[in-house]
Amino acid sequence: MKKIAVIGLGLIGGSLALELKKATWATIYGIDNNAEHLQKALELGIIYKKASLNIVKEVDIVIIAVPVNIIPKLTVQVLDLIEARTLVIDVGSTKNEVCKAVKNHPKRKNFVAVHPISGTEFSGPESAIYDLFTNKVNIICEQKLSSKEMIIRAVELFENIKMRNVFMDSATQHDKHIAYVSHLSHISSFMLGKTVLEIEKNEESIFDMAGSGFESTVRLAKSNPETWIPIFLQNKENILKSLNEYIKNLNQFKELLIKESTEDIYTIMQNTNKIKGVLAGIKNQSKK
Question: What is the pLDDT of residues 227-273, one digit of tens each?
């Protein structure tokens, strides 16, 4: 990995650039439609040099880290330009649309669809940090449609930044599962924040009374809408299914509370405590 082009220099793209520069000593070229982001990434030392899309003809790896509604068309453009041995990766939170867009491309084997599951509520080049991906999971989708060489290189790239790679054959299944474990969490956080702001007009009271539980629950409500609206729309069908289940559970809890059904409420909460074991197991797996 001598030369890497990173397209999109926000939290994920910028943090990947930092990590790969440290781990591989590769020369990192930055591409971004936002001129201010591009300049800031250069000033912060996230990238070596500003570049245009044509730089993908000269690099070993292209990482596409732009909003998911832009990824499918852009990935096709990149595949049209690259050389035969260039690895192309997209790191979007949804995979189905980009995989459909490149399915019949002559250079489909150069493309690896990945989803490094990590992030914060911040955005832009200033949000880029080291160790964002350490001990986290990277999902690789549709590996059989990529060449063996490209898969090996992609696996090594994410192992270099201390991620654990997990394979999923279906991009459709990826989007279904991620709707529950990621996208629903963001919607829940935004709507909780909205509810509190609407009910509690006194912002000073919110500040005085907000504990760590509230702060951690609404943390994701600080996320950039420009990033998340395209994700919600692109994965709409799966998100609507997860929302319906979530709303059903909220309504059930509401009815039990109205009836003061203490035993039923206790049973629901006790059964849900099992999530502690699930999350602990995930953390232990990530550390291996």
Answer: 999 999 999 999 999 999 999 999 999 999 999 999 999 999 999 99
Q: Is 235 exposed, middle or buried (0-12, 13-18, 19+ CB in 10 A)?
A: buried
**C-alpha distance from residue 237 to each of 102, 231, 244 (Å):** 21, 11, 11
Q: Which residues make beta-bridge pairs with 165?
A: 138
What is the rounded distance in angstroms from the CA atom of residue 170 to the CA atom of residue 172? 5
Query: 174-287 adopts what CATH topology?
Result: 6-phosphogluconate dehydrogenase C-terminal fold (1.10.3660)
Which pLDDT tens digit goes with each residue over 180-222?
989 999 999 999 989 888 877 766 666 665 666 777 888 999 9
Confirm if 4 and 63 have CB atoms less than 8 A apart.
Answer: yes
CA distance 8 to 206: 35
Under 8 Å between Cβ of 64 and 72: no
CA dist., res. 245 & res. 229, Å (int):
21
Residue pair 64/89 in contact by the 8 Å Cβ criterion: yes
Strand order across the 49-50 sheet = 49-50, 27-31, 3-7, 61-64, 87-90, 111-117, 137-141, 164-168
Residues 6 or more apart whose CB falls under 8 angstroms from that of 127 comprise 10, 11, 14, 15, 120
pTM of the entire structure? 0.89
Structure tokens at 206: 């919110």
Domain boundaries of the chain, sorted by first residue: 3-169, 174-287
Comparing CA positions, the residue from 95, 133, 93 lying closest to residue 228 is 93
Domain covering 3-169 in this structure, CATH number:
3.40.50.720
